[in-house]
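Session log. Operator J.P. requested a structure for one protein chain; no other inputs attached. Running the standard single-chain path with C-alpha cell output.
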Amino acid sequence: MTYTIKAMSELTGLPASTLRYYDKKGLLPSLKRDNNNVRIFTDEDYGHLRLIDCLKRSGLSIKDIKNFIDLRARGDEALNERLEIFVKRREILLKELDDLQEVLSVIEYKCWYYSQACDAGTEDIMRNLHTSDIPEEFREGRRLLHSTKRGTEVIH
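Structure written below.
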C-alpha cells in the first residue's frame, strides 16, 4: 500500500515537516517519489519510521540514527556494528530504568507520607516514624531518601 505524506503523518503521528526532515537527512533511503517529485510512502517506510522513532526515543541522535541507516545499507558486513548499537542502547536504557525506579520509589513514599500527614492534619506524626511503622512497599523510598552512599541511615 502507498501513502501520501499527509496520510503517513496521520498514521505515524509525526508532523509532515518531520517526515520531510528525515528524508532530507537520509533516514529514508528507500523512499520513492512520483513523476511530480511527490514523496510516496509504503508500508516498509512505515516500519522504518517506527524504528527511527524508537531509536530517537531511546536517546540516539539523528546523526547516530543516520549512522545506523548507513550500516544497514552495507548489509551483512555491518551486522556486528548494528548489534553493538542495540547492545549499548539496551545497557543505557536499563541503567535509566533503574534510576527511574529509584525516583519512583521515593515519589511513592512521599505520596504515602503526605497523604498520612494530610489525613492527620499534621506532619508531626510522620517525622519520627520507625521503619517498621512504614508499609513494606514504601520502605525502599524512605531508605533511598535517608541513607548515605555508605548505607548508613541519616537521622533528621
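Operator note: The mean pLDDT is 93.
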